[in-house]
Amino acid sequence: MIDPEIFDRPTHAELATRRSTKWTLFGPDVVPAFVAELDVDLAEPIARALHDAIARGDTGYANPVDLPGAYARFARERFAWEIDPRAISVVPDVMVGVVEALRVLVQPGDAVAINTPVYAPFYTSLEEARVRRVDVPLVRRDDGTYDLDLEGLEAAFAGGVRAYLLCNPHNPVGRAFARATLDAVADLAARYDVVVLSDEIHAPLAYASNPHTAFATCAQRYGARALALVSASKAWNLAGLKCALIVAGDAGVARTLATMPKEVRFRTGHLGAIAATAAFSEGGAWLDALRKHLDRNRHYLTELLSEHIPNISYAIPEATYLAWLDCRELGLGDRPATAFLRDGRVALSAGTDFGAAGAGFVRLNFGTTRAMLREIVARMACAVQAAGIAS
């Protein structure tokens, strides 16, 4: 048992010594809450595995023979998802996996559907894969939550879409889509012969009230072609080590993925593969404690906003450590992140980075300490006051 209080230990001064994007992109007077990096100490099993590798000079090319089996066991225990380790391919990161998979699964110029607003690299990755993007916007309910537009998806599939890039759980809106919804998607994909690429990088970070459903488990029942893209990078804060996995949902997709260039595998980081194997094999207790900490933070953010900036609308996410905040009532324009940075010295992700539907929104990373979260909201409140807007 690991005490979730350990995740409140890092101080601002300690975190500011880090050299990652989160802590170096802006000046030292800016509190960063934008990019999806966690403000946590490394899980002990991962730190030990990396230290041991460095001590023995084990820094060559990656050959992650143990990683597929480690992930298959993790998926069985966490998601009731049975995977043959031979169906797993190693890639440097999830978006590289998206691009390389699309290159062998569809033709240049083919239509690929996405649900907007969505993770910004989806847009550039589809451009890199030389496919045509078809937007099927999420449906936003009165309570601020979102869901898939199944009618819109069917229309897109019937109109010639050849692949569907699903974000499950969804970044930035934080939905862990219900099994019934994903079953409906799988049914549509099978009927229209659309291959589904499910980005499940945030799957380990779905909260107990809304458990993650692996899309492949739905696809198998309906005979849909599918694959999942997974990684330890978000849940264990390993993005810079460069390692992810593609899990083929059926034998046909596995055969197609086998035609990807062999160089893709060798671009994977060796230390990333070592860290990911340790995470999936030995990092479960640490992950459980982290989820308790993040669960507390997502609710604490509600309290802080209610007290300091009640005009911001916030639907508590079902997964991820990312909050999608509706700031339109503040009158800060289409990119309120600009005002928060200028007048509050706090860096948030601009909603428009996730698509036109994000105008007036920001994305806030609450994967930090409670003290830092208080500081983030306090700085946002100062920016609102500087703009002369009653909160």
CATH superfamily of the largest domain: Type I PLP-dependent aspartate aminotransferase-like (Major domain)
Give the rounded overall mean pLDDT.
97
Structural class: alpha/beta
With helices defined by DSSP (H or I, 4 residues minimum), what is the helix count? 15
Q: Would you identify the CATH architecture of the largest domain?
A: 3-Layer(aba) Sandwich
Number of strands: 15
Residue share in helix: 40-55%
> Sheet with the most strands?
7 strands, mixed
Q: Oligomeric form of this entry?
A: single chain
According to CATH, what is the class of the largest domain? Alpha Beta
* Computed CA radius of gyration, to the nearest angstrom: 21 Å
Total tally of structural domains = 2
Share of β-strand residues:
5-15%
Structure summary:
Strands 2-10-9-8-7-3-4 form a seven-stranded mixed sheet, sandwiched between helices. Strands 11-12-15-14 form a four-stranded antiparallel sheet, with helices on one face. With 391 residues, it is α/β, with parallel strands linked by helices.
Model description:
The strands form four sheets. A seven-stranded mixed β-sheet has the order 2-10-9-8-7-3-4, with helices on both faces. It has 15 helices and 15 strands. It is globular and about 60 Å long. The chain has 391 residues and is of the alpha/beta class. The protein folds into two domains: 4-42 and 284-386, Aspartate Aminotransferase, domain 1, CATH 3.90.1150; 46-282, Type I PLP-dependent aspartate aminotransferase-like (Major domain) (Aspartate Aminotransferase, domain 2). α7 (150-158) packs parallel to α8, α8 (179-192) packs across α9 (215-222) and α14 (336-344) crosses α15 (370-386). The longest helix has 25 residues, at 284-308. Helix content is 41%, strand content 14%. The mean pLDDT is 97.
